[in-house]
Amino acid sequence: MEFQMTLRSSLFALVSALTLTVAAPVIAHEGHQHTDDAAQTEHSGCDAVTVGDLEISGPFTRATLPNAPVGGGFLTIKNTGTEDDRLISATSTIAKDTQIHEMAMEGDVMKMRQLVDGLAIPAGETVTLEPGGNHIMFMGLNGPIKEGEKVSVTLTFEKAGEVTLDLVAAGAAADAPAHDHGSMAH
């Protein structure tokens, strides 16, 4: 699905802009790594989760306005292996549909589309899902995302497999995760 719209002409664009467009890098927590089975192990909010050759860090979402139709999920994925991998899907019960999206501004037109083939995670590289760029898109939210709330999302990778993470909701304009010491993976 591809959206092309001006920021002035659509409420959806306004909500998306408030939710997704602050472009700043996600702060990764370098040096914190676990080699346990991420699906079975609890991790503190300051730790990276390792699944296969992938290290996932800095997961967060943003609080949304009441009745907001969409939300975003953000994190950093580092591929420490020698083979490319691919984020092929994301699921969450917070919304009717969860997709992997790319977004770019061209003048005053926002172009956002689902990456139906997933997102490549090249060997030896780091990919950041961040506000204003590639991100997880929660479409048809079941209710508002409140600051401090944990949103569970399951990521499926082509080679590394599946991992479920808690994305802690930061403020509505946050560009990085709040420093929380709750559970990140389960």
TrEMBL record:
It comes from Devosia soli. It comes from the Bacteria. This is Copper chaperone. Pfam families: PCuAC (PF04314). SUPFAM superfamilies: DR1885-like metal-binding protein. Residues 1-28 form the signal peptide. Keywords: Signal.
